[in-house]
Amino acid sequence: MFKRILIANRGEIAVRVIRACQEMGIETVAVYSDADKNAMHVQLADLTYNIGPADASQSYLNMDALLEAAKATKAEAVHPGYGFLSESSEFAEKVTNAGLTWIGPLAETIRQVGDKDIARAAMLPSGIPMAKGSDPLTSESHAIEAAKEVGYPVILKPVAGGGGKGMFVAYSEEDLKNILQIVNLQSIKFYFEHYIEHSRHIEVQIVADNYGTVIHLGERECSLQRRNQKLLEESPSIGLSPEMREEIGALAIKAAKSIHYTNIGTVEFLFDLSNNQFYFMEINPRIQVEHAITEEVTGVDLVRTQIHIAFGEPLTLSQKDIEFHGHAIECRINAEDPDNNFLPSPGKIEFYHEPGGPRIRVDSGISAGLSIEPDYDSLMAKVVVHGRTRGDAIKIMQRALNEFKVEGVKTTISLHKRILEDTSFCTGDIDTQFIKKRLPAYEQTPPKRKLKDKMDLAALINSSMYYA
């Protein structure tokens, strides 16, 4: 097994990987920017290495600085976590070319699934259903014609990127023309998909070793979203019958095998509620923010599994070994003000008390006295609960959120409380429009940007600091 792993990340995912390594007897290297010198992941790791200033482009996104840190600390492998460079085929390639092990899928796989247009094309021969889509758009006139062909409503998506960034929905040609005022089709590759408005967002966790074995660990319900960005996830989905669950699991394995996928990943689908049809969206070639709920219902440690696979070990589990127990829910706690259009709320944490007690897990990388830095994503912590039933899990989560106390910055705790009190949520009557329909105050339209802000949009889409 590896003796030392460098974690090319920060925050709660860096802490999560450190803890898994500690259980496996593996030493860890924490990298940090000047802004993170007192961060929790730095305090917990065996070795630490400064990689530059707070600006992520000069630190956590600086491939040369990360490789220098790995070389200086004699690390044998690199775990990218999620966000930042986790989906960079270039970085994965540089890591392996430096003689280190990349803890994730192969660079060529990341390259293939990172481009949604290429990924969709790769799925076609396997017969996996997909919503009608377009080729990459080349001009405004091409976009208008392509939208007519695909059929309104359409969702305009960047070919690269993720986490709901840079997506726009047009219900008419007039909508589309307004959107094209802030989208530069020459600098960013976009394409259309037919927008399935009444749908659930369902994803499946896959695990694949280097010897052709692929299994799935069930599905996660990710329909609770704001502007295409996930807020709350649960497993299993209350909206699927046993037959549907078997179908989507088989589709996910088929998708993974069609591109010879290795390590862990997530296959994402839209479930059209009008015809009970699954439609392939994309494959995320990394650990997901919401991986903990899968761990809770299956008992499988996904980070440790990643490390074992990267070391070259075959899977010791088969599909028949996977059993699902109870129901898990995760709430993402961000340093944002939900009552002020989710304005980021950086600053020093004056008081911080995490919930505890039976069946509650909190994954975080912060504590009282530390600061939420404005340079990075606003995710502070993830509250994960596991109940015997969905109703049980909801009650446990309500207790957990009531116990969670944070002073010094605004958080999304109040929003999650409102979601959990909503009768439609409690009965399972949810879809991707839930926030818009049931809590419209939290789905405000962002201020319209002027034409000069096209470069701001490009920077947002091309950034790897935000994740799904």
Automatic annotation (TrEMBL):
<comment type="function">
    <text>This protein is a component of the acetyl coenzyme A carboxylase complex; first, biotin carboxylase catalyzes the carboxylation of the carrier protein and then the transcarboxylase transfers the carboxyl group to form malonyl-CoA.</text>
</comment>
<dbReference type="GO" id="GO:0046872">
    <property type="term" value="F:metal ion binding"/>
</dbReference>
<feature type="domain" description="ATP-grasp">
    <location>
        <begin position="120"/>
        <end position="311"/>
    </location>
</feature>
<keyword id="KW-0436">Ligase</keyword>
<dbReference type="InterPro" id="IPR005479">
    <property type="entry name" value="CPAse_ATP-bd"/>
</dbReference>
<protein>
    <recommendedName>
        <fullName>biotin carboxylase</fullName>
        <ecNumber>6.3.4.14</ecNumber>
    </recommendedName>
</protein>
<dbReference type="GO" id="GO:0005524">
    <property type="term" value="F:ATP binding"/>
</dbReference>
<feature type="domain" description="Biotin carboxylation">
    <location>
        <begin position="1"/>
        <end position="440"/>
    </location>
</feature>
<dbReference type="Pfam" id="PF00289">
    <property type="entry name" value="Biotin_carb_N"/>
</dbReference>
<dbReference type="InterPro" id="IPR051602">
    <property type="entry name" value="ACC_Biotin_Carboxylase"/>
</dbReference>
<dbReference type="GO" id="GO:0004075">
    <property type="term" value="F:biotin carboxylase activity"/>
</dbReference>
<dbReference type="InterPro" id="IPR011054">
    <property type="entry name" value="Rudment_hybrid_motif"/>
</dbReference>
<dbReference type="InterPro" id="IPR016185">
    <property type="entry name" value="PreATP-grasp_dom_sf"/>
</dbReference>
<dbReference type="Pfam" id="PF02785">
    <property type="entry name" value="Biotin_carb_C"/>
</dbReference>
<dbReference type="Pfam" id="PF02786">
    <property type="entry name" value="CPSase_L_D2"/>
</dbReference>
<keyword id="KW-0067">ATP-binding</keyword>
<dbReference type="InterPro" id="IPR005481">
    <property type="entry name" value="BC-like_N"/>
</dbReference>
<keyword id="KW-0092">Biotin</keyword>
<dbReference type="InterPro" id="IPR011764">
    <property type="entry name" value="Biotin_carboxylation_dom"/>
</dbReference>
<dbReference type="InterPro" id="IPR011761">
    <property type="entry name" value="ATP-grasp"/>
</dbReference>
<dbReference type="InterPro" id="IPR005482">
    <property type="entry name" value="Biotin_COase_C"/>
</dbReference>
<keyword id="KW-0547">Nucleotide-binding</keyword>
